[in-house]
Amino acid sequence: MDFDPVEDGLFLGSRRGLQDFLLSHTSSTVKVLTIESDDLSQVPFGVSEHTFIQVDDLITADLLSHFDDIVSFIKSGLLAGAVYVHCRHGVSRSATACAAYLMTKHGISADDAVQRLRLCRPCVSPNAGFRRQLELYERLGCRTSLDQPEFRRYRLRAAAQAAGMDLSRLTTLSQPLLVADAGLPGTAGPPAAVYRCRQCRTALFSEHSVVKEQEKAVRMVKGW
Predict the structure, then answer these.
(1) Top-level EC class, please (predicted)?
(2) How many CA atoms lie within 13 A of 40 on its CB side?
């Protein structure tokens, strides 16, 4: 059986281990979180709620932007019963998700969360990019908001990387950094400051897309 208990009600495993897990937990409500490149072909019988997050197991992939939603999903699922978190092999993506949850719940560091997971599942090994995202999540106080300059810079970098890979993912990453305007569909809520073209008054970007000189100076001192 390719799954392991993390703590009461929370299980970490592979796609292959999901069916075995469901066969052994017929008496409890089960919620499943899938973090893969492709969703399950069909949700197995016995799953009360299923959430799919499309993320590749690459060092450039963005999982941090989903951490808050992941933590909320696990928390709500544990109130109702059991939660099974999986990716393809239960090694990198799903382990990163469980680590984010442990950090939030127990107030522990990224390293401690990964080590705790390895005690119950020795194969756990988030890729280098996900490890850096867990460390950033720790610095952000285990919450993400575009009001946080460091998270805002992260989202801008992620959007820039996505632009060179899959343009469909660029929209998801960059929309919150833009501004509500008739010419920019899908954005919501006016930010504190809006920058417009002087001639046609089209909204170009918001304050969230600006890295202030003071922030740049701090990064230079810290070597960012």
Answers:
(1) hydrolase
(2) 21
User: Considering its fold, how many domains does the chain have in total?
Assistant: 2
* Separation between Cα atoms, residue 44 and residue 17, nearest integer Å: 12
SS3 sequence of 121-169:
CCCCCCCHHHHHHHHHHHHCCCCCCCCCHHHHHHHHHHHHHHHCCCHHH
Tokens of 149: 């300059």
The residue annotated as part of the active site, out of 87, 98, 123, 142, is: 87
* Cα–Cα distance measured from residue 208 to residue 205, given in angstroms and rounded to the nearest whole number: 8
CA dist 17 and 10 (Å) reads 14
Q: In Å, what is the CA distance from 113 to each residue of 32, 85, 98, 149, 174?
A: 21, 15, 8, 25, 30
In this predicted structure, what is the pLDDT of residue 26? 83
| Residue listed under structure tokens 């809006």 | 194
Query: 144 in a domain, yes or no?
Result: no
From the centroid of its chain, how far is CA 185? 24
142 noted as active-site residue: no
Residue 51 belongs to what domain range?
A: 3-139
pLDDT(222) > 80: no
Mean pLDDT of 7-17: 97
pTM here is 0.77
Q: Are strands 47-54 and 30-36 parallel, antiparallel or unpaired?
A: parallel
Measured CA to CA, the distance from residue 66 to residue 157 in angstroms comes to 16
| CA atoms within 13 A of residue 206's CA, in its CB half-sphere | 20
